[in-house]
Amino acid sequence: MSATSSPSDSQPAAVVWHSDLLKYRFSAEHPMAPLRLDLTHRLIESFDLLSGENVRIIEPPVATDEQLQLAHAPEYIAAVKAASSGGTEDEEHGLGSEDCPIFPDLHESAARIAGGTLAAAEAVWSGEVRRAVNFSGGMHHASRKAASGFCIYNDCAVAIQRLLDLGAERIAYVDVDAHHGDGTQSIFYNDPRVLTISIHETGFALFPGTGFANEVGGPEALGSAANVAVPARTGDAGFLRATHATVPQLLRAFAPQVLVTQHGCDSHHADPLADLRLSVDGQRQLAFDLADWADQFCQGRWIATGGGGYNPLKVVPRAWAHLTAIVLDAPIPIRAEIPQAWVDHVTSLTADELTGDMSSAPEDEEGRIPTTMGEGADVWWRSWEVGYDPSDPVDQAIMATRKELFPYHGLDPWFD
């Protein structure tokens, strides 16, 4: 299939996976625990999602220095390598901090994540697959010259630049992590070929303290960055309203050829590192929406990644199993029971294996091991057509973004 063919339900889809991805492990106590990936993969396998005729498994290669330089400065890559081999703190490049401590496999394990998303992007652009997911990816805080927020190499940015080099003229990146996708935005801030959209908890309340409506792109790319900074404690209805009131309108106007998405699930109400109130059901709905928009606006070309998410028992496996199933056109019913084999495995984990488990958020003291794939949440939201409520903090955030961004794309902030 050529890069301009129409999508077809019979086309293959891909999942990036290899057990070596579990080597991205800062420390036993660090919240970016490989347990989140291991349990996600086990849950995906327990639903037999990977055995389909049209499913392709991409074993992630370690990205070369040349490939990493698509998004990162050579001196930064050299600094990561030096830190990996010598364990030396490098404040200038964000290495050795509390967020990004140094460990011996730092360079290779981070480069493998980047290599996986890069390979997924190449497979989608070539037409080998229609969609692909790398739930180990989504390292959206890494900038061109520095690590940040648990992220060493920005796999999404590497993949986006590779797509541009392969001939893509317009790429949209949509980030629904609780935290602002600052690194990806910064790398493409002055590139009009890349539209970055981030819906996240306001930077007034949450790391990294950026992502406000007035961040709209550099002087050569005004209108290429969109940020909806919703208030803390926003739940499914508010977050979905914010997404639907901005994302499809901008995608329709921008007409991207490929959609790259970041699905951090730290927006869940039981996540310990953010203050949003989404459910697994709401996160699943976001994945459905982005799949639909990839079909509507990008001829089905979609590369999805994971991201944040620090409740490795109750939240991450379910959220990303749903994401993977949707990428594979085999959605899991929200009321489906979790296979007993997965529950038994989680129950059998020792205290040492659960070291670094961050699932004990205040709202999550009981029922840490789920038994169904949903939470019985009501994910209904008010569409923008219902009207703007000037007293609603979520609507205020939406309107701030629409007023800043929509005119650049020929859209009316009030009515489009």
Q: How many E-type strands?
A: 8
CATH superfamily label: Histone deacetylase domain
> Helix segment count?
12
In one word, what is the shape? globular
As for the number of domains, it is 1
Question: How would you summarize the topology of this molecule?
Answer:
Blueprint: E1 13-16, H1 35-46, E2 55-58, H2 65-68, H3 74-86, H4 106-126, E3 131-134, H5 155-166, E4 171-175, H6 182-187, E5 194-201, E6 225-230, H7 236-244, H8 247-254, E7 258-262, H9 280-297, E8 302-305, H10 316-327, H11 340-348, H12 393-405
Parallel strand pairs: 1-2, 1-3, 3-8, 4-5, 4-7, 5-6, 7-8
Helix pairs in contact: 1-10, 4-5, 7-9, 7-12, 9-10
Distinctive features:
HDACs; Acetoin utilization protein AcuC; disordered N terminus; Arginase, Chain A; acetoin catabolism; 416 residues; eight-stranded parallel β-sheet; 12 helices; alpha/beta
